[in-house]
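Quick illustration, no need to memorize.
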Amino acid sequence: MRKIVCLVLSLMLVVLSFVACTGKDNKFEGVKYVELTMESGDTMIIELFPDKAPLTVNHFLENVSEGYYDGKVFHRAVKGFMIQGGSADGNGVGGSARTVKGEFAANGVENNLKHTRGIVSMARTNEYDSGSGQFFIMHAKTPSLDGQYAAFGRVVEGIELVDKIVEMPVNGEILIEKPVIRSIHILENYTRES
C-alpha cells in the first residue's frame, strides 16, 4: 500500500510540474497585438507573429508586461532604412535584464518574415543570441537583414509615425531629440479591419 501511495504522489508531482511549466510557456498565448503610444500622443498598432518567432514574441511581451518600454526612446533613425529604440540608456546601449535566442536562418531557426516596410525586428549585437530590449521598425525594404535578425511583428496601424521619426534631425544616425515611448501595452480585444 505504501508503494502505491508513493507512486501516486510521484505521478502527481510529475503532472503538476508539467502543468506549471506549460502554463508559464503559454502566458501570452493568444496575444496578437500591442499598441505603442508616444509621449506626443501618436500611436501605432503592431501585429505579432508567435508562429514565426515564438521565443522573440514571448520575450518582447515579457518586457511589455513588466513596463520595460515605458519612458524609453527611439534613439536611432535612418530614412529609407529603419528606426530603433528600447535601449536601457536611451543612447543605444543595453537592454532588458534578459536575452533571447535569435530566431533567424543564420542562427539555424526558420523564420521567413522579410524585412519590408513596417516589419518589427529584434536588435542585437554581433552575438546571435543577444537580443534583449532594443527593437527596430523598418522604414523601407532591406533584404540584407532577412535571415540575419529576428523579425517578429508588423505595424498594421500608424506607420506614419515611422515616417515622422525618420524626418527628425539626426547627428549621423542618432536622433538629436529622441521621441519618448509613453508605453506599450497588450491589446486584448483588438480586431484588425480588412
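The chain has two domains: 1-28, 31-186.
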